[in-house]
User: Fold 3-ketoacyl-CoA synthase from Brassica campestris.
Amino acid sequence: MDSSSPFINVSQTFMSFPHVASAFVVIAVFSYYFFRPKCIYLIDFSCYQPPDFLRATVSNFIEHLTISGVFDQESLDLQQKILERSGIGDGASVPVTVHEIPPNSSLSAAREETHDILFTVVEDLFLKHKIDPKSIDILVSNCSLFCPSPSITSIIINRFGMRSDIKSFSLSGMGCSAGLLSINLVKDLMKIHGDSLALVLSMEAVSPNGYRGKCKSMLIANTIFRMGGAAILLSNKEQDKLKAKYKLQHLIRTHVGSDNESYESVMQQIDEEGNVGVALSKQLVKVASKALKINVVELGPRVLPYTEQLKYIVSFIKRKWGMQKEVYTPNFKKAFEHFCIHAGGRAIIDGVEKHLKLDKEDVEASRSTLHRYGNTSSSSLWYELQYLEAKGRMKKGDRVWQIGFGSGFKANTAVWKCISEIDSKDRNAWSDRIHLYPVSGDGSSALET
Assistant:
């Protein structure tokens, strides 16, 4: 038969289909490998542990407020009352400049505090993992109320001699939830920049932010904020999976600032006498609960078992029909083994515990962090995670839910999965006193031994 016959051409065409199909499979595999979303790995993190001489016992704190001569008796009594009920213990610390009488709130004092905290945690992290500062591709810092020029990231770049092409970002004014917001920024950057190593720095400067007026809502911040900070090392390099502690699974951001009550719940402002401070609204817990509810509605379908989701849907329908009063609260302990709730204060921790129907053990890390370190703002979630590690509770395969709140008002949450064996004997910010925790009673009484 003639080779130009159409039958032969048809046969040859059909014979080529397996080859074409194989080619498509190969292309699909390579496309998936090269274009799939890369995982974000948390290699390790370091939390600042203030030296013991910076500890501010409750009695010492009140004494300093009294001797300073800044406050009238009514303001002193209010701060003492708040402090004694705060759940903050005698181990929480303030910068050396705050120990001065009167406290030093100068720019140089704020710089000194920032250097002390961040230089320490970054050096610890770099030495532990033998990291060359020039290998850092992305640098993000967050400090809400202290925004110097040059920026905090510039301070770190100068100190450690980082590369000139490093991608650096200094975030300010973002509140106590800015730590997870910084993680989210790194996550988004890593979608574009493959094989990158990122360093996130979270802290709040206490030195320049003491309030010296009489406004009750602004005096609260004086009593709860303490010295602290954290450095977090992240990577999207596949080879770093072998040495990473955790893998990021979900990160959800919620901002309810369009609502005036939420927007004004945490606000830096000037009182009638010209004193600057941060006012905390009486509606703060209500606002936090509202923001968390919105966040959970988005996160829930991604993490909860179908049985829990079904229970919620059924109860929601029944409530619409007037068959029951309350909507079912899903059991989030079926999705997570551990919870890290921002240690912003007893009321915040109590509110989340009640809202999510958690047990005392579930919020132990948060209460212990509040007691030992006070409200360290955006870094508190990392102290809590270190607490779980030091207690030996974090196991490979465990999932931990971090819940952060901040001015604006924002609720940001992150879900991490432990992908390595955590050694509880590795030294961290809890190693020296972990045997004294959890605290007994309301968190302001003596420690259990």
About this structure: The chain has 14 helices and eleven strands.
